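Task 17 of the worksheet. Students: predict the tertiary structure of the chain below and write it out as structure tokens. Keep your answer in the requested format; marks are given for formatting as well as content.
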Amino acid sequence: TSIQHDKPSDSAPVPVWDQERTIQRMGGHRALIEKLVTLFIRDTPEQLAEALGIELQDYESSYIAMHSLKGTSSNFCTTHLEATCAKLLEALKHRDWPQALIIHQKLSEEYLILEMQFKDFIKH
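Model answer:
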């Protein structure tokens, strides 16, 4: 039998959401954080869809949507998602449309993982 070590995992990297730091940053008000998380879950898919202006090479709409998402990500201490947004913004600045599409896909996958973590947070 042989063991394969070349493929670590099929899953996307898990975005880091520092739940404790977020709670601390927002004064320990869990109800407020739950409300903000609910709004984030509601609004982020639309922001990701607006960023699909990348396919049309629409710099302005894509950049605005991703800049907004990056700021919101920062508020929730989601450093991995925020870093991916920053990479996408950099690709957009350089009008590197193929790279922007790749990063956008990665960002969408990371968001879905984060969304599950947030929904879990709201349930508890």
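Marker's comment: The two ends are 44 Å apart (CA to CA). The longest helix spans residues 97-123.
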